[in-house]
Amino acid sequence: MRVYLALGDAAAEAWIRATLPSVEWVDDFDGADLALVTQLASAKAALQARVPVKLVAGTQQIARKARRLGLSDDRVMVVPVLDRLTAAHVLAFMVRDLEAPPVRYTPAPFKVQVVSSRQAGGTFLAWNLFHVLVSRGVKAKLLSASSASPLATWVSPPYRDMVFGAIEAGGGEVWVIDTSDTTVQLDVDAVILVQDCDPAKALPALNDDTYWLVVNRVPYGLEVGSEAHMVIPDFGAAAYEAMTTGVPVAAKHASFASALWELWLAIDQYERHIRLEVALEHEEAAPEAHVGFVMDDETADGEAEPVGFVLDE
Questions:
Q1: What are the pLDDT digits (tens) for 180-202?
Q2: What gap in Å lies between CA 102 and CA 96, rounded to an integer?
Q3: Which residues on adjacent β-strands are paired with residue 5?
Q4: Closest CA to 213 of 200, 198, 194
Q5: Maximum distance among all alpha carbons in the chain?
Q6: Is 0.85 topped by the overall pTM?
Q7: In angstroms, what is the C-alpha Rg of the chain?
């Protein structure tokens, strides 16, 4: 069996290699039958190379992130920080796979569900988040639970990596699933709840009270409660332009795109102690033009000119 080993402990790696001389140890994932690692980045890289992975995690939080990558509980060993991890522990963890090589599998996509109160802008948020993910190199797909989503009229076909009337699709690392104005209940990795400032609108029912709250269309100067994780201003004409041109607001407003990316990073790291406030980006004011006529006794910069006839003296 060919095994990729990356524990971050040279002495432990040397002991394991010496204990298992029949194993062929490789320096990269190419052709490996198993990867035993301690870093999430290494686990993700192995999965992308379609190599079965076992991860030694230092905390439960790291274990949760590993499960989001698609690793089952038996593929993750959690070692509390206060306990001392030994090479023998790691060896026992991996030895079962040496007897029966694991089946290769494709990691499950990370699923983000966007729910919203009625017409609060959930579809708008999902569309812009999807755009930001794709623009930054994430293999994302945008799924709309409703076949009558307004997004189908905002953008023109072909709908690249967008699927309407579905909650599943083939491929992709991240699925942004828009369930705005529907009662669809899903088993997902994270939920974004979108609401506006209308107190009369009822919030949708959620399976879990753990979500990231986005308050949309906030009028200028209005204070929003501290429970919101992200505050989006009323984009007004910019939002209308996006819906009529098919170009999302985040494509033209850097502060909005940056905040959406920070929101995604927080979700990916399961960080809920955040507060992101999007600032409206106003065009630079044009220099004030000269107002009124330029008279004979005045130049455009306000300096006086000679008055009357100019005669030879």
A1: 988 888 888 899 999 998 888 87
A2: 9
A3: 36
A4: 194
A5: 115
A6: no
A7: 28
